[in-house]
Write a structure and sequence with these properties.
The chain starts with a strand and ends in a 32-residue tail after the last helix. It is 34% helix and 21% strand. The protein has an eight-stranded parallel beta barrel with strand order 3-4-5-10-11-12-13-16, surrounded by five helices. A two-stranded antiparallel ribbon has the order 1-2. It has 346 residues and is an alpha/beta fold. Strand 3, helix 1 and strand 4 form a beta-alpha-beta unit.
């Protein structure tokens, strides 16, 4: 599987990343055997980049990912985790389904973008993962904590990178505007942009992607299916974690019809699409089973003909200025306009 180096760091990631939220029991329970099988399948397909967070299953995702990777050579894979939500033990009963995870509510999340909070969170993640270093650390959803994230959390990550505790640093969000500020005002290596650069939403192209490209900052794209709609467009499908509006559903169905005419599953086009932009280093897909891992890898390996992108443009389903990949995989350049998988949560 092809790969790219993140920014100016020496951290190399594969084009497809394993999103580990689902093995943290996202929405429904996954047992240990199934979780391990999903990680094993990712390894077998050539995936070497694995993304997790304390938020995912109150630490369960980190525990399971670390255990599944413990038999692998440490220098052959990259792990990213996130800071911003520290976990504190609680005596509360019940489960965590209100936050999207089918796990006992053994901990509570505490928003903390202080320098001390960053270090404490990373120390706890290292323990849960069973690692002595973390390759990539993202500031996780600092939307409502912008100033603390820039004044305290980011400088703490920069120091940890200098100390060699982490290899690359960045921010991960479901919006493009603040990520653009990180690219412009800091020395992040990478940003994780979820849902804002897809076949249905190219908001990240307004400023984020051009800015990242100009500054040599890598972009990892998550949420390529916009929480499910582009994986299987049908009535009742979700778009950005809510029921898709009739207008958005109709647009997705029209895209599917175009893809069908070219003999390509829509999810294959959705996975391939972000690589049309040179700033994109990879895509992150959440998977809960070996079957879903293999499907994602197989779909990404499919050839998407140039004529498919041209027809999407001709039908007004893709703006003319949006870059698309060429059919010869590995040559990420624009094409002349004429010519259930689980999504990662925030």
């Amino acid at each position: 599987m092809r790969g790219s180096t993140l920014g100016t760091s020496d951290i190399a990631v594969t084009e497809l990343a394993f999103g580990a939220a689902a093995i943290g029991n996202l929405f429904s329970a996954v047992d240990d055997v199934q979780a391990t099988a999903a990680v094993d399948a990712a390894w077998d397909t050539g995936i070497r980049y694995f993304d997790t967070a304390p938020h995912y299953g109150l630490g369960l995702s980190e525990h399971r990912l670390g255990a599944a990777l413990s038999i692998r050579p440490r220098d052959e894979y990259v792990v990213s985790t996130k800071v911003g939500r520290r976990l504190e033990r609680t005596a509360a009963a019940g489960d965590d389904l209100a936050n999207g995870f089918a796990v006992p509510a053994t901990h509570r999340r505490v928003w903390d973008f202080s320098a001390d909070g960053v270090r404490r969170s990373i120390e706890a993640s290292l323990e849960r993962l069973g690692l002595d270093r973390i390759d990539v650390v993202y500031l996780h959803d600092p939307d409502d904590h912008e100033e603390q994230a820039f004044k305290e959390a980011y400088p703490a990550l920069e120091r940890l990178r200098t100390e060699g505790v982490v290899g690359a640093i960045g921010a991960g969000m479901n919006q493009a505007e603040m990520l653009t500020r990180f690219v412009r005002d800091t020395d992040v290596d990478v940003v994780l942009c979820a849902g804002r650069y897809t076949l249905l939403d190219q908001g990240g192209l307004d400023e984020l992607l051009p800015e990242a490209d100009a500054r040599g900052t890598s972009v990892v794209v998550g949420g390529v299916f916009n929480s499910g709609l582009l994986a299987d467009p049908k009535p009742g499908a979700t778009f950005n974690y809510a029921a898709a509006s009739p207008e958005v559903l109709d647009r997705a169905l029209r895209m599917k019809a175009v893809a069908d005419r070219h003999g390509v599953p829509l999810r294959a086009a959705a996975l391939r699409f972000p690589f049309g932009h040179p700033a994109v280093a990879g895509i992150l897909v959440g998977t809960r089973s070996a079957h879903e891992v293999h499907d994602a890898a197989d779909m990404l390996a499919r050839t998407v003909p140039d004529a498919l992108w041209a027809e999407l443009r001709a039908d007004g389903l893709l703006p003319e200025h949006v870059p698309v990949p060429v059919a010869e995989w590995g040559n990420r350049a624009d094409v002349d306009a004429d010519a259930r998988t689980t999504e990662e949560p925030s």
